[in-house]
Specification:
Mean pLDDT: 88
Structural class: mainly alpha
Radius of gyration: 15 Å
Largest sheet: none
Low-confidence stretches: none
Order of helices and strands: HHHH
Helix content: over 70%
Length: about 70
């Protein structure tokens, strides 16, 4: 039973984190962050989104700042 409770609690925390990120990040920042979490490099993310590497780096910097506030 303990493991089931831990899984449910973990799922609740994950859902709460997802909601908080969705509220805090712009759609573009969310997209860049998702690519980052999937393991894409800044260069790969830039190519996928058809933007500059600098734009991706800036979005990740903004995301880190916003996350650190929460």
């Amino acid at each position: 039973q303990s493991t089931v409770d831990e899984i449910l609690e973990s799922k609740e925390h994950t859902e709460l984190l997802y909601r908080k990120l969705k509220e805090a990040l712009s759609p573009y920042e969310s997209e860049v962050t998702l690519c980052y979490l999937k393991g894409f490099s800044c260069k790969e993310t830039a190519a996928l989104l058809n933007v500059s590497e600098k734009s991706v780096e800036n979005a990740l910097t903004r995301t880190r700042k916003k996350i650190s506030k929460h």
